[in-house]
Structures are given as C-alpha cells and as structure tokens.
Amino acid sequence: MIMTKEDTKELFYLTEIKNDEVYVVDSIKAGIERSEQEFGIYNGILRPIFELLKIKHEHLITETSTSIKEFGESLKGSTKQKTVIFISGDTSISEFVNSLTKASSSSILKLFVIPAGTGNSLALSIGNNGVLDSIAKLFTHSSKDVHPLYLYEVEFPLGSYFLSQSEKTQEITKPYKFLVVFSWCFHASLVADSDTPELRKNGIERFKIAAFSNLAQEQRYDGTVQVGSKKFEGPFAYLVITLSQRFEPTFEILPKGNILEDSLYLVSFKTEETETAEQDPLVKGKYIMDIMGEVYNKGKHIENDKVIYEKIEEGQNIEILIKNAKVERKRRFCLDGSIILLPEEEENKIVVRPTGDTHNNFKLRIIS
C-alpha cells in the first residue's frame, strides 16, 4: 500500500512519540545474530518510517558487550520524555534498566520492545507477538497504552558473579533489578547451559537441547523459600519467580498473571526421588517433563497439587536459603536471561523485594 501525504500527516499526529527523545537500541547479537548491514528490522522497516514522518532519533548498535551499559549510563534526566525502542530480547532491556544512573531530576522513560531475542517474554506478555505487529503498535498506540513498568530487586551474597559461557565476568556488588523472571534449579540450568555459540545458532530450540541434557542429571536443589509467614521446604527441581505470563508463545507459566500489574508469583515444585542415579534420563526426569507439558497445555500446571503457585502479596519479600550447593551448577541463578553464580559457602541467602516503577529518578513506563 502506498501512503498519501494525507495518510502520512494523519499517522504523524497519531504518533505519541513524535515529541519525545527517541532512541533505538539494536541488539544485533540477540537471538540468532544479525548483521547491522542486514536489510532487516531497522534498515528495512523502522528507519524508513521515521524518515517519512520526520521523527528524529538515535540508532545504537550493540557492537560490544558493554554497549547497552554505556548507553544506559549516558542517559540524563530531563523534562522531555524519552522513548527507548529495543530490537532485542529480555536480557538487553534488563541490562539497560540496571545500568541507569541516578538522574538529577525526575524523568519519564518509556520503553518499547520489538521481539528479536531468543527469549521474548516481555514482548509476549504485553501482546507484541511479532515484528510487524509491534511496529504498527509503536506508531499508533495512545497514552492509554502506556503503563508503569514494575521492577523487583534481588540482593545477592558477597562473592557472587555474572557468568558468560561458564566464565566469571563481573562481580556483583549491588542489588540487581529484574522485570521478567528470576529463577533457580532446572530453569536456570537450561538457560545457563544453552549459552554457547553452538547452541545459540538453534534459536529457541537451544533451550530444549539444554533441557534434555539436564534431565540426565538429578534435579535436586536443597534449600527453603520463605514468603511472608509461609515456608516452603526443598529439595526443589524447579523454581521461578516471575510476573510474566509467557516465556514462549505457548509456554504459559502464569495463566492468572498480568505483567502490567504489580503482581509477582512463585512457581515451583519439589524433586521426586528416583530409584538409581543410573536410571534412563527420560525416565528420571519424566515428572519434570510431565509438568512442563502442563505449562504448554494452557497453564494446566496450576491445577497440579505438586506445583506451588503462590501470588506474592503487597509488602512481602521472598527469602531463598540455598544449602548443600558445593557443585557449581546448583549455585547458578537466572535473572532475565543473565546467569549469576553464588559463592561456594555452606549456606547462601538471597532476598527478593518489590521496588516499584521508579529507578534512579527515572519513572519507567512500558508501551503495550
């Protein structure tokens, strides 16, 4: 369809972001890597529309592992609203939010996601189901489609590190925010083990490959979880803390959740003992795959008595006590796709708490 001058003028006036400071973060290493020269999402679709509507913007290509961090640190508070458009998955957005430094004045910062990662949970949970659908929404949304972006903070023990492809990178010296998921046990293990150049070539299938590899090992993670006055005893096989309805298009982890509300859930189930360590992995891990199958079946797992499906009430913190975790894989956690390794101690404690929709004087909003 060819747009007339009248069409262009109407779209310009419809576009909420026309008076904002607009940035496009193009995470070319997200999902299956893309080349910045590729005739794709930005060069093929987004840039021509911006040029047609005469909307000024800055385009950031993530050339290094610190590109997003440096961009986040560079943003300053101002009276003018900012819109940051991510062509990425969840991890890039999480890295950006955590890199924001304290602004001198309060400022509204709107985020929009065009799904291009392996994990697109945030996009799926706000109804951005594809590239073209998302871009149409970007230019036609109204102020009613701008919602608070709620964050949750995780306090890690001293001596914790980020892992990248099983190598320690940055030491964690402060609490970190998440906006989609924080996990331990089977979920964190399959995300960590799928983080290799070879498996990344498989896109979302890399998680299934890593899952079958993990089923060959006993999924036993000793510890306890305290939510308010409730205490859940391990050993756990699966544990996620999330506000996202879906991790994949059909993986409905929170059928009753709403990422646009300040509502967090604990979803977990315990380890089922098997007869021998040498048992066939498909038999050993059958109970895990059965419950995962229920998640794929429109979230039927919440009807399973073995599954903990706990809504975190206002003002409640979550405390996780990790025990008997000398083996490294039992000390790995996933925060919005990033992997974190806890120190080798007799016990480690993690605290998860709500922090609202403002971070370092930036009032965070999500365009849905």
Automatic annotation (TrEMBL):
One of its GO terms (biological process) is sphingosine biosynthetic process. InterPro entries: ATP-NAD_kinase_N, Diacylglycerol_kinase_cat_dom, Lipid_Phosphate_FormReg, NAD/diacylglycerol_kinase_sf. One of its GO terms (cellular component) is membrane. SUPFAM superfamilies: NAD kinase/diacylglycerol kinase-like. It holds the Pfam family DAGK_cat. Residues 41-158 form the DAGKc domain. PANTHER family: DAGKC DOMAIN-CONTAINING PROTEIN, SPHINGOSINE KINASE. This is DAGKc domain-containing protein.
